[in-house]
Specification:
This protein has 3 helices and 8 strands; from the N terminus they run βαββββββααβ. The protein is α+β, with helices and mostly antiparallel strands. α1 packs across α3.
C-alpha cells in the first residue's frame, strides 16, 4: 500500500507544478537534492532514465515512468515508486508525494524517510506560495506556512 504525504499551499497549481516537475528547481525546496540529469528538461519526461544527485555527490539512478502534464508524474528510484502530484484547491493547491515499495521495505521507508518527505512537502508548499507572491508583487515577500499537511496510508 502506498503512503501519501501532502501539504496545502496558497500557490497556484502552475507554480507548485514548476517546482515539483522541473529538476533544475528541486534544490529550491529539497536541500538534499543538488541536481539531476537525463530526466528531461525543463520538465521531467515520461520514459527518460537518468539520475538525481543527492547530498552534492551521490547519483541515484531513476526512470520517469508516467506523466500527466500539469498534474502528476511518477518515477522509479531503486525499489521505490514515487508519485508527485499537484491538485487544485479553491485557494491554492495540494502538493503530494506517495511512496510505494515491496514488502517490509515500505514500512522501513515510512518510518525513516516518511518524516523527511512530509517535511519536504511542507517546505515545497511554503516555497511555492512565497515564489507566487514574489511573482505577483514584483518584490520579495514572505507568506505564512501552508494551511495544513498530512500523511496517510492508502491501499
Amino acid at each position: 500500500m502506498a503512503r501519501i504525504y501532502s501539504a496545502d499551499s496558497a500557490a497556484p497549481v502552475a507554480e507548485a507544478w514548476s517546482l515539483i516537475a522541473e529538476p533544475a528547481r528541486w534544490p529550491e525546496w529539497s536541500p538534499h537534492v543538488r541536481g539531476a540529469w537525463g530526466l528531461g528538461s525543463p520538465e521531467v519526461e515520461q520514459g527518460r532514465t537518468g539520475a538525481a544527485r543527492l547530498l552534492w555527490t551521490v547519483p541515484v539512478p531513476a526512470r520517469i515512468t508516467e506523466k500527466v502534464d500539469g498534474s502528476s508524474w511518477t518515477w522509479r528510484v531503486g525499489p521505490m515508486t514515487l508519485v508527485h502530484a499537484v491538485l487544485p484547491l479553491p485557494d491554492g493547491c495540494r502538493i503530494s508525494t506517495s511512496i510505494a515499495a515491496p514488502g517490509p521495505l515500505e514500512g522501513v521507508l515510512a518510518a525513516t524517510y516518511g518524516p523527511v518527505v512530509q517535511a519536504l512537502m511542507k517546505r515545497l508548499a511554503t516555497v511555492a506560495a512565497q515564489s507566487a507572491a514574489r511573482s505577483s508583487s514584483g518584490v520579495a515577500t514572505s507568506t505564512s506556512a501552508p494551511a495544513s499537511s498530512s500523511s496517510s496510508r492508502v491501499p
